[in-house]
Each structure stands twice: as structure tokens, then as C-alpha cells.
């Protein structure tokens, strides 16, 4: 049977909204995919500011933004469907935009009301994929391992470098996954201080000087010694990372944090003796970061075509939606730490 699903992904790095229209086929329990159409819609200054600062809103303001952003998503999907004259859409699967992520307190919040998306498009919508996992004792993240398992199992591991870097791989017959460290959520913030939205090719970092005192403090944060499954959120960055980065020039912070990210990523490759890793996400274009990772590991880095680099996460949320409408498992407890594998997402 064939499914045509639109996946929506907005990451913590605020690069924009990824929209991916994917085609999925399940033949003899083997899933095949095709990215039919995809695009990234950059956030306007208005929306970037709103999403960057939504952590500070009161309850009423946050609820208003949840609704407003839902209609924003719905409009962008409607335009996407019209632009590419899509005639056959079975489902829209939306990740939403993460505001709070505190699995230790049994909650996570991704804004963007799925009901608003459905109202504007009159197509079934699946959304809020993370909350059920958190209520079941899991981290609610990472969720993409189900896609790595079903679509990309030919690689030893899959690494996504976005706002955070996260990895998934098979160990002892089970899919293991966890967040490694922050990446673009920090790099973009300090690139902004130098007048750019991001550190293109890592040029600022390359020109900066590594502050080894700060690097040591970063590398010895307790999170890196804790065992997976584990996940990261903005709250952790605000409490543990940003206070360490005060007082140095932005170029030096970028050099230091790029070195930190490269070290943490390479440490995982080496520890688990990974032979090859599929790289996707915006951080894959940071050539200096990739150089620094290669410098620290013999693991082969596989960089796929641009379409997969940019849209793998949105593609996998489309797959998660496909699994949801078929009542099949779309979250792996071995990856999130929840009490059982389960089928998650509110379907309307």
C-alpha cells in the first residue's frame, strides 16, 4: 500500500520550517520512501523573534501563540500544496516547535495546534508526538530512530546535526539513540552577534581562538557522563552552558564551542566503534566542524545528497504520521527510555 504524507519540522536552531511531501510503500514489511517535493520556509524576523522568546511568555500569551503558530503552519502547508499542485495528500504530520522540554517533570511542549492546520487544509493531521512518551517515563526524544531503523539501517549509525546533535544506532539488537550535545542552537546565537544568522562553513570559528579553560568546563558537564537514553532542551543550555560562555569574543566562543561539539561527537563514534555514520541536518554544511570531527575519529562520514541532508527529519515525521494512521509502533523505548514501544501522536 502507498501513502502520501506531508511532514513538518521546526528545529531549535530556528533555521526555518521544513516541509517534506513523501511517498511511502511497505512491501513485505520493508519500508521504501521517496522525497517527492520539499522546501524550507525561512522565518521572518517577526516569527523568529516570537519563537526565540516564547520561553518567557505567560500562560495566556503562550496559548495564544500555540493557536497563532498552528494557523501559520496551516497556511504554509496550504501554500505548499497549491505551489506544487499536490492532488493526493493522506495526512499532515507536524512536529510543532518545542518551547519546554522537561521529561524529568513529565512534560514537553511543542506549540502549533494541529486542529488549526486541519481547519485550513481539511486533511487529517497527526501532531504532539512527544508527550505520550514523556508520560510513559521516556525522554520524548529522540524520535527519529524509528525512521533510521526502517529507512536507513544500511548505515552503522545516523547523526543529525541541527540545534542539537543526536545519534541512533543498533546495539545488541536494539536501536539506541540519544542527544549528544548542543550545536547550532549555540553557534547561531553567537554568529548573530557578528551580524550573520549562522557561521557559514565555520569561517568565524576557524578564525577564532579556542579558549581551553572554557572547553574543559564544557567537556566536564555532568550530562556527558550520564548514560543514555538522554535528551537536551533549551532550559539545560540556559542553566549550564550559557553561563560558561560569558566574557569572551564571539569568534573565540564559536571556535571553542565548535571544538567542543566535534570532541563530543567523535567521542561517541570512537566509544561505540562505529565504522560509518550518515550525516544530515544543517550542521553538515559546517565544513570546519566536519573537519574537526574527522580530525578526532577514523569513522567514515557519509554525506548524502542535499535533499536528504535538509529534509531527513521532516521525512521521518511524515513516516511517523504514516505509522500513526496504521496504528503501528512509531516510538522505540530503547531510544527514549519509555516503558514500552508505542504508537504516539494525536490524530484528528
UniProtKB/TrEMBL annotation:
* Cross-referenced Gene3D superfamilies: 3.30.420.40
Which Pfam families does the record associate with it? Answer: AnmK
Q: What is any one GO biological process for this UniProt entry?
A: amino sugar metabolic process
Q: Which UniProt keywords apply?
A: Kinase, Transferase
Q: Which domain of life is it from?
A: Bacteria
Key word Kinase present: yes
Gene Ontology molecular function terms on file: ATP binding; kinase activity; phosphotransferase activity, alcohol group as acceptor
Signal peptide: which range, if any? none
- What is the name of this protein? Anhydro-N-acetylmuramic acid kinase
Amino acid at each position: 500500500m502507498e501513502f502520501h504524507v506531508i511532514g513538518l519540522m521546526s528545529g531549535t536552531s530556528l533555521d526555518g520550517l521544513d516541509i517534506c511531501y513523501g511517498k511511502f510503500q511497505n512491501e513485505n514489511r520493508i519500508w521504501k520512501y521517496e522525497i517527492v517535493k520539499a522546501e524550507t520556509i525561512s522565518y521572518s524576523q517577526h516569527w523568529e523573534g516570537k519563537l526565540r522568546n516564547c520561553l518567557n511568555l505567560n500562560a495566556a500569551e503562550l496559548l495564544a501563540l500555540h493557536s497563532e503558530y498552528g494557523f501559520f503552519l496551516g497556511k504554509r502547508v496550504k501554500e505548499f500544496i497549491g505551489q506544487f499542485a499536490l492532488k493526493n495528500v493522506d495526512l499532515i504530520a507536524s512536529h510543532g516547535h518545542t518551547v519546554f522540554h522537561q521529561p524529568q517533570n513529565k512534560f514537553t511542549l511543542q506549540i502549533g495546534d494541529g486542529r488549526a492546520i486541519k481547519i485550513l487544509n481539511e486533511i487529517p493531521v497527526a501532531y504532539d508526538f512527544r508527550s505520550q512518551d514523556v508520560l510513559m517515563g521516556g525522554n520524548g526524544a529522540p524520535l527519529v530512530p524509528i525512521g533510521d531503523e526502517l529507512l536507513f539501517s544500511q548505515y552503522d549509525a545516523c547523526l543529525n546535526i541541527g540545534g542539537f546533535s543526536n545519534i541512533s544506532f543498533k546495539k545488541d539488537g536494539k536501536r539506541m539513540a540519544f542527544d549528544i550535545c548542543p550545536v547550532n542552537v549555540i553557534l547561531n546565537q553567537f554568529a548573530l552577534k557578528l551580524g550573520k544568522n549562522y557561521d557559514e562553513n565555520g569561517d568565524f570559528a576557524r578564525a577564532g581562538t579556542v579558549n581551553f579553560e572554557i572547553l574543559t568546563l564544557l567537556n566536564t558537564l555532568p550530562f556527558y557522563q550520564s548514560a543514555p537514553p538522554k535528551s537536551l532542551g533549551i532550559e539545560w543550555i540556559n542553566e549550564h552552558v550559557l553561563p560558561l560562555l560569558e566574557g569572551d569574543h564571539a569568534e573565540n566562543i564559536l571556535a571553542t564551542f565548535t571544538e567542543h561539539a566535534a570532541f563530543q561527537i567523535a567521542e561517541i563514534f570512537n566509544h561505540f566503534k562505529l565504522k560509518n555514520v550518515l550525516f544530515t541536518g544543517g550542521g553538515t554544511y559546517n565544513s570546519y566542524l566536519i573537519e574537526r570531527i574527522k580530525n578526532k575519529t577514523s569513522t567514515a562520514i557519509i554525506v548524502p545528497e542535499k535533499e536528504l541532508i535538509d529534509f531527513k527529519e521532516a521525512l521521518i515525521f511524515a513516516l511517523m504520521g504514516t505509522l500513526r494512521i496504521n496504528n503501528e509502533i512509531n516510538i522505540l523505548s530503547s531510544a527514549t527510555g519509555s516503558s514500552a514501544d508505542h504508537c504516539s501522536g494525536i490524530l484528528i
